[in-house]
Amino acid sequence: GSRVLDAACGTTSTGRYLAARGWRVIALDVSIAALRLARLKACTEQSRSAQKEALPVSFAVMDMTDLWLPEAYFDVILNFFFLSRPLWSTYRRSLKPGGLLFFETFLREADANPAHYLDSLELNNAFNDWEVVHYAEIQRHTHARDGADRTRRVAQLVARKPK
Fold first, then answer.
1. How confident is the model at residue 53, as a pLDDT?
2. Burial level of 47, CB count in 10 A (0-12/13-18/19+)?
3. With 50 as the cut, is the pLDDT of residue 50 above it?
4. Alpha-helix runs per DSSP H in 7-161
């Protein structure tokens, strides 16, 4: 029954996974096409399940750059491969005390626009007043839209909001 925000969720594979295990997920994305695909996948997964009950996922098209969320509402916030630094203060307000933030996105390479990529340790420093359960900067294998495989540096953070 805990509440999860899947921010900039795309097709929300993580959100669907958590919903199938009883978490109530609110999946937000700017792309209506991605949310339609996510809803279709959720219905397909639901029809395969023995319970045949609706997955507890709510989908909403939302501009993630100007987001209002209720205060101390979510138990978990997921933010994967989307970067909007102004959202960090929204996440701080919207996560319940003791709640967890899961965050992973790309680190800046030499020629990349700094507005779209994290600097090394930036994410860790932004939440260093919380209990940092996990922080790592690693190489991640990615598959690009053009079909090319490449390796990119990412920052991963799991942090618990103080009680």
1. 56
2. exposed
3. no
4. 13-19, 32-48, 87-94, 122-126
